[in-house]
Automatic annotation (TrEMBL):
Membrane-spanning intervals of the chain: 6-27, 39-61, 67-89, 109-129, 141-163, 175-193
Taxonomic classification: Bacteria, Pseudomonadati, Pseudomonadota, Gammaproteobacteria, Alteromonadales
Keyword set, alphabetical order: Cell membrane, Membrane, Transmembrane, Transmembrane helix
Protein's name according to its UniProt entry: UPF0056 membrane protein
Keyword Cell membrane tagged: yes
Amino acid sequence: MSELIPVFIFFFAVIDPIGSVPVFIATTTGFDAKAKRHIAYKAIIAATGILLFFIVAGEYILSAMGIPLSAFEIAGGIVLFLFALTMIFGEGKASNELRMAKSKTETAIFPLAVPSIASPGAMLAAVMLTENDRYSLAEQATTTGVMLTVLVITLILLLTAAPIHRVIGNGGANIVSRVMGLILASLATASILEGIKTYFSL
């Protein structure tokens, strides 16, 4: 159990269930309650599929392309940092994405499934925490179970986003979005620094 807690915390930070709530609220404003539920389920299914793909094949793809995990960590951190900047200084985490989403499926895939839930950091975590050389098959299966638990928590928060929105309002959602952007920026910076440290063996 003591080994699972850090894994859970790490996945909770990179998947960011709480931070996905304002994104869901912003991108589903024009849909009814039934459509919102469908969008939530589709987003979680898509994000789960993407993260499971990275667990199964991510390391092999990187190895085949000659890309070290540290380089992937740096690249993921940069993408995550740029995404965080749009949350902090832009019109809101999902303002531009909202204008691009025209259907339930499009909204569920972008920006909810990617990059809000299955973020670059989450993809990175899926690869790093299931390295074949460091973890046994049983440990990888346990890590996968922890990740799925966080995704279930994310789904529950998305399905209860409406009452949350009634409490915090649009202004509160905007504040949460910008605060989470700052947290994501910090997480991205840590990822970049760790990648540089690993790559140069500092």
